[in-house]
Amino acid sequence: MSPKSAWVGLTVLSMAVFGAITIEVAPIGLLSDIMTAFGVDKATAGLLVSMYAGLVAISSVPLTRLTRHVARKPLLLVTLGIFSASNLWASVAGSFEVLIAARTLGGLAHALFFAS
User: Can you give the residue ranges of every domain in the chain?
Assistant: First the structure.
């Protein structure tokens, strides 16, 4: 691997980690907007953060075991694609239930991303 391609790979991976962490905690700053937009109370809106973090923590080991025979690079690329798609889906969610579903998919992708 050339030094240039190593830097490109490292840069992409760094951006992916930054995006994953940002997406994980972004709802904290948006709770009042989420409460207003979807008509839910603070505790329910807070589930977007706690559910996501719990899902990542609980599912990372089982997902790693399930995918241990899959090549890591293609798995990482697919995981990033799913993660991106789930965040696009969350950005256009028309209901709180759809937002929860999108965040659930994103949490699973996030767990597999960090386990890869």
Answer: 3-115
* Of 83, 109, 99, the residue nearest 47 (C-alpha): 99
Taking alpha carbons only, the member of 15, 93, 103 closest to residue 54 is 103
pLDDT digits (tens, 9 = 90+) for 50-104: 999 999 999 999 999 999 999 998 998 899 899 999 999 999 999 999 999 999 9
Element (H, E) at 2: none
Helix, strand, coil shares of the chain as percentages rounded to 5? Answer: 85, 0, 15
Q: Distance (Å, rounded) from C-alpha 61 to C-alpha 25? A: 21
Those residues whose C-beta lies under 8 Å from the C-beta of residue 107, and which sit 6 or more positions away, are: 51, 52, 53, 55, 56, 59
